Amino acid sequence: MSSQKTPAEADSDLETLLSSKEVIRRLLGGKVRQATAQQDLILLETAARGEAEAPEELSSAYDAVLDRSLEYGSRAMSLPKGERLRFQKATTALRSGEGVLAITKIGEMSIKGLGVYEALLARSWAIRYDNPREMCHLARVAAEMSEGFKPKTYGGDQQVADLRARAWGELANAYRVANRLREAQDAFGKAFSFLNQGSGDRSLKMRLLDLEASLLGTSREFALALERLATLAEMYCADGEIHLAGRALITKALYTFYHGDTEKACKTIEEGLALIDRNRDPSLALVSTFNYILFLVDINRFRDAKRALFVNRARFVTQGNVASLKMRWIEGRISYGLQELESAEIAFREAKLGLTEAEMGLAAGIAGLDLAITLLRQGRQEEAVQEGLESAAMFQAIGVHREILGTAKMIEEACLAQTSKLALLEASAQYLRKMMIELMLG
Predict the structure, then answer these.
(1) pTM of the model as a whole
(2) Do 16 and 48 contact (CB within 8 A), yes or no?
(3) Between these two residues, 392 and 243, which has the higher pLDDT value?
């Protein structure tokens, strides 16, 4: 039997996928573990076939996966029938790993049309964590394809401008992910230029503002990023997208923290956490809660941090070994702040050992440095020096950022000279904690 589907059959599949998000959740049964973006459409296809269990490799964050997949499906459903079939075939071809070349191998298909355009953008977004280079290539092909769209064929000048704005915005974001920041800036310039020529689509405008804020943050243009995110949160609220408004505020809180105002970052992340739907995006809720506790500790609100950790302990424990280790590390920091030095020492030793075994070098090194500080506070100079040297070696082994390497060298020299000062180590640890959040490492 042929696996080829007619346009009518493809329409039926898409309608099944889009019929009920809640049905898909029930079919999955909450058994997923580790979702990757490239499995989005596979996840939906599994549900559409009526299978009772999702593949084991899929994640507990499936709500967020469903949101993205349903968005792709919605776009496909809005296409003419022939283009829906193109979308399906192109999506299947792109998943083969052969890139755009795979599309050209489909006998009756050429690289053209909205179905292929949508498939390219969907696939580009899906592989953003795994293959930034290919992410850029696919988005670039979609942007170049949109340049050839004829207004007469695609609904008029404004509609074509919208398609071009979207493609160039996604390409700009792909360049950001690949750390090609100059090209990202140029691509955003084109995206907003096309947006001004377009239909005034509000969702498209918000998408571009969201993506541009990420570029501004990556470029350390925090003041501009904060302006974009404040505007974006207001727009989402006005449109009733409360969860997305909360997400924008959480990102704003991070950039506020990077900008040096932890007090304000605490207030902003509290506002964001109050708005997001934790069931819709469990991963966002978990990471944001952890960052909130880090912010509280950073401004010496140790008892508030202890309460927040107590309330959220079960969430961290159920997220696996790494989350539990990070929780143990933050427990050590809280104990240190409350002058419970013996408890802090035990927590830091456990966290350092576990994070080292998990090959999370930056986090392990910081836990070791916190341990050195705790030992120094107890008058155990020799042990503190040894821990400081071990942490410096961990930081140098990572070698991912010149500021981290400089800090590591300073710690090493101070320890070798037996001149380890509590204030120096505490300042170094505070700086490295900030770098860990900012670099999304450890």
Answers:
(1) 0.67
(2) yes
(3) 243
